[in-house]
Design a protein that fits this description.
CATH topology of the largest domain: GMP Synthetase, Chain A, domain 3
Structural class: alpha+beta
CATH architecture of the largest domain: 2-Layer Sandwich
Shape: rod-shaped
Largest sheet: 5 strands, mixed, barrel
Number of domains: 4
Radius of gyration: 37 Å
Strand order of the largest sheet: 5-6-7-9-8
Helix content: 25-40%
CATH class of the largest domain: Alpha Beta
Distance between the termini: 124 Å
């Protein structure tokens, strides 16, 4: 029993994750290569290795002839009789080869063959491992920063976090553990090339699957996600069980579940809303936390006209239009938002426009006092205006009157009195 070879194979199998059969094949090929360097040909060279004891035999097969013309493949009957008493002309005899007699060059070549095979199998093993994890989330350690790219160590392989897939403003330091989303795994001559992301919306979805058991088992379904990495994310959830609250399950008791995801995303805000097959209700939910007065949708054109209270307009649009923009991406509708005061005179925002089939082309309205333009918000975004920095409150500022309701009749039903 060749105990040294057996121990070496066990170590390689565990550390490199390479099958024992592959290692045996590499050894056989290396011995054949060494024999070829000694004898010049390999067609008649054979190697057998006992898989249990690791004992191996190297032999050359030669044809018995009366007169030798090629000493590498032929042998005389007289010499063949010395190896096998039953040898006859035209028969085959086996001649054992002692591998210890191989020269230094032959031995070095055999070694290189084994190492090359081990490297190839190690690359294939790593590729197969991570190819199955594509479109999944893994935990890695920040290894080094190469210019604007970051190398993430995933254990047996390094992944590349390019500048485009990094969250703006997020600082990752060496030895820091982070979760990344595997975008793609490529098999290259230099080994597997793994591309990862910290900005992909699927990263948020996978984090919810790992943190929320109801999402993992399918009780709660994540219907859509819209994300601006590092700032804010909106997700629409739906419960397949009427006894399970989809939003409550994702938030968790005292917000423990969603807070764990927020911490992993370095403080990124997450809005969780209920998905609804009714587009108008879904759009109303998507504009949360803003309150909505009415929603008129056009399913064919994928457009929606939304009316909000006067004091809620800035909250509905959000800082630099972010809330409206994320809601548009989440629902797939182009959303046009106006407050109650402007909706009175805006075509398409009144029910009368649809009852009488009267509709005029709508222009763009500019809010000079607020410092931003009102218009349509779609999935692609909007034309950036001059927004003021700061928080947008849900309640009207002190001293500011609330918006008057539409079409309000005089108090007490009194008729207006005409004066002469």
């Amino acid at each position: 029993m060749n105990t040294e070879l057996m121990e070496a194979l066990d170590i390689l199998e565990k550390e490199k994750d390479i099958s024992r059969d592959t290692l045996f094949e590499a050894i056989e090929n290396s011995l054949i290569t060494a024999c070829r360097n000694n004898y010049g040909r390999s067609e008649n060279i054979h190697v057998t290795i006992d898989r249990e004891t690791c004992d191996y035999i190297v032999y050359v097969e030669k044809t018995v002839v009366e007169e030798v013309t090629d000493k590498n493949t032929e042998i005389t009957l007289e010499d063949a009789k010395k190896l096998d008493e039953n040898a006859q002309i035209g028969g085959i005899v086996r001649i054992n080869v002692d591998s210890k007699e191989f020269g230094r060059i032959a031995t070095q070549n055999a070694k290189n063959v084994i190492l090359q095979k081990i490297r190839e199998e190690e690359r294939n093993s790593v590729y197969n491992k991570f190819a199955g994890k594509a479109r999944d989330v893994v935990t890695g350690v920040v290894q080094r920063i190469n210019g604007r790219n970051i190398s993430i160590n995933l254990g047996k392989a390094d992944a590349l976090l390019s500048e485009n897939e990094q969250v703006k403003g997020e600082i990752l330091r060496p030895t820091e553990r982070v979760k990344v989303y595997i975008l793609e795994v490529k098999n290259t001559p230099r080994g597997p090339r793994i591309l990862v992301s910290r900005t992909h919306p699927e990263l948020v979805k996978k984090l919810f699957e790992s943190e929320v058991t109801e999402v993992a088992d399918g009780t709660v379904e994540i219907k859509s996600i819209s994300r601006e990495a590092g700032s804010r994310t909106k997700i629409a959830v739906y419960s397949n069980n009427p006894d399970v609250d989809a939003v409550g399950a994702c938030v968790g008791m005292n917000g423990t579940r969603v807070n764990a995801i927020v911490d992993e995303l370095k403080g990124e805000k997450i809005d969780i809303v209920n998905w609804d097959e009714n587009a108008a209700i879904f759009i109303e939910n998507a504009l949360s936390p803003a309150k909505v007065v009415s929603v008129i949708v056009d399913p064919d054109e994928k457009t929606a006209k939304v009316v909000v209270p006067d004091y809620q307009l800035s909250l509905a649009i959000g800082k630099e239009g972010q809330n409206a923009r994320l809601a548009a991406r989440l629902t797939g509708y182009k959303i046009d938002i106006k407050n109650e005061t402007q909706a009175k005179d805006a075509p398409g925002f009144r029910m009368e426009d649809y009852l009488t089939d009267e509709y005029d082309e709508e222009g763009e309205y500019e809010y000079e006092d607020e410092g931003y333009e009102e218009g349509e918000y779609d999935e692609a975004g909007y034309e950036e205006g001059s927004y003021e920095e700061g928080e947008y409150a849900e309640e009207p500022a002190e001293g500011e009157p609330e918006a008057e309701p539409l079409d309000e009749e005089p108090a007490g039903g009194e008729e207006p009195v005409e004066t002469e």
